[in-house]
Amino acid sequence: MLSPERANGRSLYAQNAPPPPLPCPNGCSGEPLIRLRGVVKRYRTAAGDFTALQGIDLDVYAGEFLGIYGKSGAGKTTLINMLTGVDHLSAGEVWMDGLPIHNMDENKLSLWRGRSLGIIYQSFYLMPSLSLLHNIMLPMDMCGLYRRGQSEECAMELLRMVELEDHAHKLPSAISGGQQQRVAIARALANDPQLIVADEPTGRLDSVTAEIILQIFVSLIQQGKTILMVTHDAGLAQRVSRTLQLTDGQITDQEMTL
Q1: How many CA atoms lie within 13 A of 9 on its CB side?
Q2: CA angle 71, 253, 102 (to 5 degrees)
C-alpha cells in the first residue's frame, strides 16, 4: 500500500539530497549508484487509469550486474524508462550518482543520458545510412566529449573490442543481427558511461549469439561497469549477480545469484 505522500506524488525525501540507502544486499558497502523511491507510473487508457509500476523502491550499486525479469506486462520496460528518464514518473524519485533525475528538464535529461548512460535495445536502432564506425561515433560527436579526430580512434577501439574492426566501413544491412547487436553495445559504450541499460538485448538472437552477448556483458562488469539487463528469460537472469522479479508492477522477489 502506498503512503499518502507517495500516492499524491509528493516525495518523502528532500529534493536537494538523495534518500538514505535501503538495507544493503549481500553485505555491499558504499553509496548506491542508483536509488528509486516510491516510483509509480500510471497510464490513462480508454478503460481508465492503469498503474504499470506500484511504488518501486530499489538501490543498485556500482559494479552490479542486475537482471530484471518477469512476464510480459510486468512493468520491466516501464521501470527502465523511468530510470533513464525516457518517460515521466507519476510519483516518486529517481537518483543516479547523487543527481535527481526526476527533477531534470528535457534538455538536461538528454545531455545526462548521452554522457552517463549506454542503452541497448532488442531492436538494434543503428542508423541504416551510416557505416558501423560512424554509428558509434554519432553519440561521441553529439556530446562533444572528444577532441576532433579522437572519436574515430575511440570508435575503432570499441569495434575491436566486439571483434568487428574489419567491418568498420560496412553499412548495418551488410552484417548479421548478432553482429549488429555487438555494434549497438559498442555504441552504448561510446562515451564511457557509468551505467549500461539493456532491454531484452538477446531477444532477437539465437542461443549461440546470445551467449556471445552475455560474455561481453560479463567482461564489462569485470572492467567495473554497472549493467541492468531486462529479460523475460529467468534462465538468462540467473547469469547475473542479482535478480529482481517484477509482477504486476511490483518487486516480488530479489535474489543474489553470485
Answers
A1: 8
A2: 80
pTM of the model: 0.86
Count of CB atoms situated within 10 Å of the CB of 135: 25
- Containing 195, the helix (H) or strand (E) segment is strand 195-199
Which residue is associated with the grid cell 534518500?
19
Contact 10, 57 (CB under 8 A): no
Cell 543520458 appears where? Answer: 113
Domain boundaries, the chain: 4-256
Of the candidates 141, 203, 146, 152, the residue with the CA atom closest to the CA atom of residue 178: 203
- Per-residue pLDDT for the chain (258 aa), expressed as one digit of tens each? 333 333 333 344 345 788 998 887 666 778 899 999 999 999 998 988 999 999 999 999 999 999 999 888 899 999 999 999 999 999 999 999 999 999 999 999 988 998 899 999 988 999 999 999 999 999 988 887 777 778 899 999 999 999 999 999 999 999 999 999 999 999 999 989 999 999 999 888 888 888 899 999 999 999 999 999 998 776 676 789 999 999 999 999 888 766
In CATH terms, the superfamily for domain 4-256 is P-loop containing nucleotide triphosphate hydrolases (3.40.50.300)
CA dihedral 226, 228, 229, 230 (to 10 degrees): 180
